[in-house]
Write a structure and sequence with these properties.
It is a single chain. The protein contains eleven helices and twelve strands. The protein is of the alpha+beta class and about 400 residues long. The chain has a domain of about 260 residues: Thiolase/Chalcone synthase (Peroxisomal Thiolase, Chain A, domain 1, 3-Layer(aba) Sandwich), CATH 3.40.47.10. Strands 1, 2, 3, 4, 5, 8, 9, 10, 11 and 12 form a ten-stranded mixed sheet that branches. A two-stranded antiparallel sheet has the order 6-7. Helix 1 packs across helix 2, helix 3 packs across helix 11 and helix 8 crosses helix 9. The two termini are about 20 Å apart.
Length: about 400
């Protein structure tokens, strides 16, 4: 067994639903992220890439037929470079990175690109096939943008509730107030806005040709708790979940470059971080929001460190309440979580978010010199993923 290292990360800016990236096909977004992360290693002979592992949650439209392989071909990589596409819903690209790191550790690969893509704007409507020819009745088009569709009647009803309604259940159980959720959301926008202004994302984000989008489109620099308090609950008349304290629908792609220690010579790069631990967990589907709690605890145990050692956390903010519930259960300082903004502001293009949090975490550790960090994400239908990174640059590596 050898160690797996993260060498580089890149992503597109994340566009709003129907916004600046709505006219861009998801396979083109994937191609852009793939090409951008490989461009971080200009000396690389791209035929040396052993595998591409790509995440995508939808795969019902232009992202069908193995969008990872489509990106390899569209990016002009040698046809000898293989690719696969994985689907673990919101966790797809983090799962892709975890799979890629295992390939490296077992010696099956020396150099792997992992990433993911989602265009929620371009997610198509689907129509179930009729059970017989020439049916006389009407049929209903079903949107594939978000959530379950064509649900099996054998599935318990409480498991198939919407993500928003499930999160209302979590809010009730945890007692996390609307005021606290809104304040958390405001903080996400403020941190993301400040990080962009400070140039943190300048070398992580590659612009999309033809799209007038200089930064993540969902960030609201002038939002406030007062403005969010005026929003109507989205799922229950007396609920606490609103459009302001939920992640938006988005379009975008992300990628990370993973390899063995000896891949440094092939890339002409020094590694940024070591993949020190991985964790997966599952629970009841309506409580998907807190599944990262156990996933991160398992990843830390496998890394041989504890929460007291962790200096940076990137937790995908599907909803403010689920993020707060995870932070509370971990018992960590909220200030170390999403210091450069989270998905409530940056956006959550499902298949791309895991790669975003992992790449952001690596850069945060390098910038701060801290040693240990955790990237985690919740997943619809009751799952969570987490990765522990160890900074291997400068004073951070001891």
């Amino acid at each position: 067994m050898t160690d797996a290292y993260l060498y580089a990360a890149a992503r597109t800016p994340f566009g709003r639903f129907g916004g600046a990236l709505a006219g861009v096909r998801p396979d083109d977004l994937a191609t852009l992220a793939l090409d951008a992360v490989l461009a971080r290693a200009p000396a690389l002979d791209r035929s040396r890439v052993d595998e591409v592992v790509w995440g995508c949650a939808n795969q019902a439209g232009e992202d069908n037929r193995n969008v990872g392989r489509m990106a390899v071909l569209l990016a002009g990589l040698p046809v000898s470079v293989p690719a696969t596409t994985v689907n673990r819903l919101c966790g797809s690209s983090l799962d892709a990175a975890m799979q890629a790191s295992r390939m490296v550790e077992t010696g099956d690969a020396d150099l792997v690109v992992a990433g993911g893509v989602e265009s929620m704007s371009r997610a198509p409507w689907v129509l179930p096939k009729p059970s017989r020819a020439y049916p006389a009745g009407d049929a209903t088009l079903v949107s594939t943008t978000l959530g379950w569709r064509l649900v099996n009647d054998a599935m318990p009803r409480e498991w198939t509730s919407s993500l928003g309604d499930s999160t209302e259940v979590l809010a009730e159980r945890t007692g996390i107030s609307r005021r606290r959720q809104d304040a958390f959301a405001v903080g996400s926008h403020e941190r993301a806005d400040r990080a962009w202004a400070d140039g943190f994302y300048d070398d992580l984000v590659v612009q999309v040709p033809g799209a007038e989008l200089a930064r993540d489109e969902s960030i609201r620099s002038g939002t406030s708790s007062e403005k969010l308090a005026a929003l109507t609950p989205s799922f229950r008349p007396d609920g606490t979940i609103t459009a302001g304290n939920s992640s938006p629908l988005n379009d975008g792609a992300s990628a990370v470059l993973l390899g063995s220690e000896r891949a440094a010579a092939t890339l002409g790069l020094d590694p940024l971080a070591r993949v020190a631990g991985r964790g997966t967990a599952a629970n009841e589907p309506p409580l998907f929001g807190v599944a990262p709690v156990e996933a991160a605890n398992r990843a830390l145990a496998r890394a041989g460190v504890g929460w007291a050692d962790v200096a940076a956390v990137e937790l995908n903010e599907a909803f403010a309440v689920q993020s707060l519930a995870c932070i509370d259960q971990w018992g960590i300082d909220p200030d170390i979580v999403n210091a450069k903004g989270g998905a409530l502001a940056i956006g959550h293009p499902l298949g791309a978010s895991g790669g975003r949090v992992l790449g952001t975490l690596a850069k945060r550790l390098v910038a701060s010199g801290d040693r240990w960090g955790v990237a985690a994400i919740c997943i619809g239908v009751g799952q969570g993923l987490a990765v522990v990174l160890e900074n291997v640059t400068g004073a951070g590596h001891r």
